[in-house]
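_Full entry_
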Amino acid sequence: MSELTYSEAIQKAGNSITRFPLIPVRGIPLMNHIANNWDSIWDFRPDPSDLLIATYPKAGTTWTQEIVDLLFHNGDAEVCKRAPTPMRSPFLEICSPPPIPSGLDLLKKMDPPRVIKTHLPFQLVPTGFWENKCKAIYVARNAKDNLVSYYHFDCMNLTQPEPGPWEGYIHKFMKGELSWGSWYDHVKGYWMEREKRNILYLFYEDMKENPRREVERIMRYLELSLPDEVITRIVELTSFKNMKENPMANYSCIPAPVFDQTISPFMRKGEVGDWTNHFTPEQSKVFDEDYEKQMKDINIPFRTLI
């Protein structure tokens, strides 16, 4: 399906595009279309050559997808503009009203090796990924910045539940009442399984601080070896500025009835520490106290500033 027909499919869905309610699947709130199609998602059998890119929403998913695509194609920018991100790297669990293709529909039409995106917490990832020893990259972003980015995304993504006011959204995040559930459980789930499952666990803040180092880490994990000049090109092509201007990566293929980018651009700031522009001192204090309780059983080296 081309970019045009992908956009057309969303346009044709028309009146069926709405802020879909959340339904719990094994205790995790997911949009109703995902929940209603859960058996098919759970039964998905990846090829051993498939790569899974897993994140909590708004933690650097698209950035990582673009880096991986460029690594697999020797830094060829034109090849990586062959289709929008969701066509090149399908979103495993996403389901929408017909005629919009589901992630499973797109994957059926692709030959392995495939790059597959998911926001599912570890316990909901189809077991075939681990049974087939697929490689998996997980990207984690500090809670405060992740929360800010998710809030703005939920304002502009007109299929997600109404975010409500910022003050209330903080508490929804703390309670795990957003799509795909608790950030705390999500980052902990993959962290605890990273060695057993050979998961490359990356931090958004590290990627911002030294993108070349992290691109090289991904390259080695994928068992690739590219010349220095290709790595330099990939780092440049995946800068926030260049990706924001790239129509194959900035989700401009998703029409306004779904992503209203006049409310907030899909690629908004891409910064570490933007949370300081949103949290009041009191909100930050309450959040930090709750964070300490929820993360007391594990030591994941998050940074809220770099």
Remarks:
- The beta strands are 22-25, 28-31, 51-55, 115-118, 135-140, 199-203.
- The longest helix spans residues 143-156.
- The mean pLDDT is 93.
- Residues 3-294 form a domain with the Rossmann fold fold (CATH 3.40.50.300).
